[in-house]
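re: ur question from earlier - yeah i can do the single chain one, its not a big deal. heres the input i used so u can compare w yours
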Amino acid sequence: MSELVPGEPGAGGYRAAWSPGSDSAAVAEHVGFQYASIGHQTGTAQAGLWLFLATELLFFGGLFLLYAVDFARYPAGTLAASRQTTLWIGTLNSVILLSSSGAYTYGLGLARRGDGRGLFRMVLLTAFLATVFLLLKGYEWHDDIVRHLFPGPSFALPAADGGSLFWCFYFVSTGLHGIHMIVGLVLLAWIGAGARRGRFSAAYHTPVEGVGLYWSFVDMIWITLFPCLYLVGR
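and the output i got, formated as tokens:
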């Protein structure tokens, strides 16, 4: 293993202490001036991302709390409203999203072995699956609106039994999840561009791991949404 020690400005103000078989010089290019080592920088980045995901979890947690309260008040209406969701699309999207996470995780493993081309291909596959997910969700939203399941004056279900509250949760939660997926696609484009330029290596792939954490969070939110929206009434 190599070690970064204080050196001349440039490469973040640190130079690499060479050891046989190391690529510390390449790592030093990615170390910011405010960090003592690549390990310090990586740990700080990961801690910051976990803190961000914790705030996101609190945000979505509030939505799930509202869902639980509405379910407790209107169990029959919630179950009836859930049966109106399109189960086959929800199930297919779940498979697609889990597959995208599997593809990205495999790409992360390739990045850890220094295979930038393999990482690039897996990022492309992940982005493709995410796009298919969003297109299916858009089609499902259109079908829901056509069937008058969007809460409003022409809502197809009895509003008094909690059905409209369920569908409010449905559109808000899936809409927010979709926004997070679009952000994820932007991050995937950034990682893909970096992989194509050879920015990542076996010694430096911190951004790849960070985006992987974010994508896993998006996956986890959908895994929680799926039974609440599609399975609870069935």
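The two ends are 55 Å apart (CA to CA). not sure if urs matches, ping me
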